[in-house]
Write a structure and sequence with these properties.
With about 120 residues, the chain is mainly alpha-helical. The longest helix is centred in the middle third of the chain and has 36 residues.
Length: about 120
Amino acid sequence: MIIKAFSNINTCIETVKSELTNLNISFNNAINEAELHEKIWMKNRTNEKIDRLKKLKNLAIKKGGKCLSEHYFNVKNKMSFKCSNPSHSSWEASYDQIFNQGTWCKQCYLEGRQKNKK
């Protein structure tokens, strides 16, 4: 398809229709197919988000803690976590920080450093 600047939306739509006709594709079929692809993409994206939330929850359990958040948005969005130590406060961290960078409870980390200094 030819990409060019259009003076208005109607000119754009007519050009797209013309290009689709040249390719033996009806405008309505192209729109329906685009909508179908969008639905499939959204479903895959939703499944990906559910999978990442499950991974975070499982990793938190392996560390003896818990992921308190019920929704996952993206790798940078902060979520709530709680470690196994009842005296420690919950904290927020992103998927990237927990899963990719390996960070966990800052209070546990600092206590571990103090023990190692002794």
